[in-house]
Fold:
Amino acid sequence: MSNDSTHVKPYVQVTLTTKALHFSISELQSRMDLRHPDALDLEYTRLMMGFLLFCPAPARLAMIGLGGGSMAKFCHRQLPGTRMQVVEINPHVLALRDEFQVPPDGPRFGVELGDGADFVRGPPARFEVLLVDGFDYDGLPEALSSQRFYDGCYETLAPGGLLVVNLHAGHPQYPQQLERIRRSFAGAALAVDDSDRSNSIVFAGKDAALAALRIGPLRRPPGLDAGAWKSLQPEMARVLSALKAETV
Structure:
């Protein structure tokens, strides 16, 4: 494990209504609405929750990249039957978990300091859902976008499991990154851009997981409260629209 000096130390920017995590003034990593600390304030994080359309109640969920903890907090609150494991490589980010009101470790939730690339190369843990949002000061590390990494993601998923990856749509290597995911998942991958096309969320399914979703009206997953579901509906509709376009 690398020591603290090898990682850039982020800083926290606070306004009257928000608290944000930055590595630089031009790059926003995470943002929390102080009035609703468990809500998803950034569009791409809501888009990543599209996995709920395919797997509304996963038994086990893993995340690579804690950041400000937005997705970890949302899933912890909205998926009370799900056991969650979060891996974060930057100790300075991990040290801010209380600042962003990330829940303490417990029987169904834990955050550990570790390398996401090593995590998926370990003994398969068989998660139903794996969320990957591992950007650092320099962007997306090669270790979290290599063919070997995506192969490892496939292996760590349970049968019918789903990988969800946040990529920068405008990055020069984006086409190559997307192709690597498709290769690892035998072509079963769906890319959905956010509204300003800066983030591209890729859903990749193991054992025809994507094909299992019937295209129809949006329905709230069991257990998800009405307010949370309402906040997700525009992004859920975007996922369904992309899936429909793929199947036409």
About this structure: The chain has one domain: 42-210+219-247. Helices lie at 43-48, 51-54, 70-78, 91-94, 116-121, 147-156, 174-184, 226-247.
